[in-house]
Amino acid sequence: MAKMIHSMIRVINAEKSTQFYQDILNLEVKRSLNFKGFDLHYLGNDESDFELELTVNHDKTQPYILGDGYGHLAFSAQNIESLHQKAAQLGYRPRPVKSFYNDDELVAKFFFITDPDGYEIEIIERSEQYH
């Protein structure tokens, strides 16, 4: 059986991006690999083995074009109201917290936030469905 281990996104500024993911999701740099032309930074925490790989191409200075195929990365958190407030206080401009229903049943409580490179990040409150 296969196991998901990481997802990779390309970023312009490793320090700015790692600070965002540390501030919002408590992701720390687990390891970095430096190559001629690019660097890889693997972020994670004790909540999951899954890692977010940030790739920095040395010759890239302009923002990446994300296209219309990318959707978002999703993370779960215990108390999204306090996380939303923290993100706003840090100046990251999270969008409003929303509740998503199927008929009268709450499916998810969530908000979106955009990282420094324009990637959409969904923060979902932990529940039986999202843990």
Automatic annotation (TrEMBL):
Gene3D superfamilies: 2,3-Dihydroxybiphenyl 1,2-Dioxygenase, domain 1. Keywords: Lyase. GO terms for molecular function: lactoylglutathione lyase activity. The keyword Hydrolase does not apply. One of its GO terms (cellular component) is cytoplasm. Transmembrane segments: none annotated. The keyword Lyase applies. GO terms for biological process: methylglyoxal catabolic process to D-lactate via S-lactoyl-glutathione. This is Aldoketomutase. It comes from Pseudoalteromonas phenolica. The lineage of its organism: Bacteria, Pseudomonadati, Pseudomonadota, Gammaproteobacteria, Alteromonadales.
